[in-house]
Design a protein that fits this description.
The chain is of the alpha/beta class. It has 2 domains: 120 residues, Roll (Urease, subunit C, domain 1); 302 residues, Alpha-Beta Barrel (TIM Barrel), CATH 3.20.20. The strands form 2 sheets. Strands 5, 6, 7, 8, 9, 10, 11, 12 and 13 form a 9-stranded parallel beta sheet that branches. Helix 3 crosses helix 4, helix 12 crosses helix 16 and helix 15 packs antiparallel against helix 16. It is globular. The site of guanine (GUN) has 11 residues, from helix 2.
């Protein structure tokens, strides 16, 4: 066992939602996992005064002036879009055609895929992200490259080969039967290997034939522990397109439901243009939304409706959605989510009072809430006893203006807000995935 003394933030594991727990002078005790080589677990967390006598024999690293929080969970990101960040276009569909598909076509080359995978994983970890649900490309080799690189870094990574057998250009379009054979082979090769998991990844309804969607759903039923990831209701032109393709479906989301692709461990990016019947369907099926505010602002897609999502009781968490999204940095994503809450209007666009999402709620969305959206509550994204011990050490002194604001904070919420508004990767002093990276 080993321990860290610092200010500590985690979330009440018994609360149904974001109940922050905080100790200004805390002790986090971690120990080895149940099996050799398995992730380290949190043994105890609480006030230094209470816990120090009980763990007197355990070596303690003291981090004065630092805040330890759970490692961040990025609920939706595209590793092959690392170099697509900041590509301007008139909305989603032109952006896919002009930048994204041509770029993703390069990942047929395993050496290129491997080189991008290294940079991508380094960037996640550098930004304090210790769990990520990520798209690869339609090329199976892109998954192999990413998984192989992730294995040595200790990150908890769930990824999948993109399925897209129609309305996609040469170079990224796959072939229906082969795509499903490849998906099953990749599930068998990678799912459950150490901290790696597989996600069945239909890109979005317009890019998948009925046969491919049916095949994806059959695999999802046969492998219930495997994730599903896709996109839904991101952009109004996309929504119109889906209505033309599926005129008898009740909604865009219902297309996935009708094929059998809504269930626990299914994460749908965006979920902007949903109605309340869709939101009820999300709750009933256990599917979750990956809220991607920097992407939605960059591509002009719209605003996630937090109030309606909460009323419906659907699950959601935060995501960078790089490369539609503009940053790997969880602070930037949380700040953009705050802006979205302020700007959100419901009820036909009539200006209503926006929400003021609490900083601890934003933090929960990017840690324990995102983990719960993946069906990983009690496993990752939190520092409650029993959780896999992924954590980050934050240094508010790393930026002069932040140090100043931090020192004036009168409450936990004010302190977290200072980090969200003024923080960036300089603040992340140490990143400790629950499995130590290979030397
Ligand atoms: N919809 C289908 N593919 C994509 C993608 O790569 N990014 C985003 N933001 N939306 C999509
Ligand atoms: Zn996406």
């Amino acid at each position: 066992m080993e321990a860290c003394r610092a200010s500590l933030l985690w979330f009440d594991p018994l609360a149904d939602g974001p109940l922050a727990r905080y100790e200004s002078d805390g002790l986090l005790v971690v120990g080895s996992g149940p099996a050799p080589g398995s992730p380290q677990r949190v043994v105890d967390v609480g006030a230094w005064n209470d816990l120090a006598p009980r763990y007197a024999d355990v070596p303690v690293t003291h981090w004065p002036g630092r805040l330890i929080t759970p490692g961040f969970v990025d609920l939706h990101i595209h590793y092959p879009q690392l170099d697509v960040i900041g590509s301007p276009a008139d909305g989603l569909l032109p952006w896919l055609e002009r930048y994204t598909f041509p770029h993703e076509s390069r990942f047929h080359d395993p050496a290129y895929a491997a080189s991008v995978a290294e940079v991508f994983l380094d960037e996640l970890l550098r930004n304090g992200v210790t769990t990520a649900l990520t798209f690869a490309t339609s090329h199976p080799a892109s998954v192999d490259a990413l998984m192989a690189a992730a294995g040595g870094r200790g990150i908890k990574l769930v990824a999948g080969k993109v399925l897209q057998d129609r309305h996609s250009p040469d170079g990224v379009r796959d072939e229906t039967e082969q795509s499903l054979i490849d998906t099953e082979r990749l599930i068998q090769r990678w799912h459950g290997q150490g901290r790696l998991g597989y996600a069945i990844t239909p890109r979005f309804a317009p890019s998948c034939s009925d046969a491919q969607m049916r095949g994806a759903a059959e695999l999802a039923a046969r492998y219930p522990q495997v994730w599903i990831q896709s996109h839904v209701a991101e952009n109004l032109d996309e929504v119109r397109w889906v209505r033309e393709l599926y005129p008898s479906a009740r909604s865009y989301l219902a297309v996935y439901g009708d094929f059998g692709l809504l269930r626990e461990r299914a994460v749908y990016a965006h979920c902007i243009h949903l109605d309340d019947t869709d939101r009820a369907l999300m709750r009933e099926t256990g599917a979750a939304a990956a809220v991607s505010p920097t992407s939605n602002l960059f591509l002009g897609s719209g605003f996630f409706d937090y109030a309606s999502a909460d009323r419906a009781g659907m699950r959601y968490g935060l995501a960078s959605d790089v490369g539609g999204g503009t940053s790997f940095c969880p602070f930037h994503t949380m700040l953009a989510a705050y802006h979205v809450g302020r700007a959100s209007v419901t009820g036909g666009g009539l200006a209503k009072q926006g929400l003021s999402l609490a900083p601890s709620h934003l933090w929960w969305q990017h840690t324990a809430g995102a983990a719960a959206a993946m069906g990983l509550e009690g496993v990752t994204g939190n520092l409650a006893p029993g959780c896999e011990a992924d954590f980050v050490v934050l240094n508010p002194q790393a930026k002069p203006l932040l140090a100043r604001k931090w020192s004036q904070a009168d409450s936990l919420e004010e302190a977290l807000f200072a980090l969200i508004v003024l923080g960036d990767d300089r603040v992340i002093e140490q990143v400790r995935p629950a499995v130590r990276p290979a030397a």
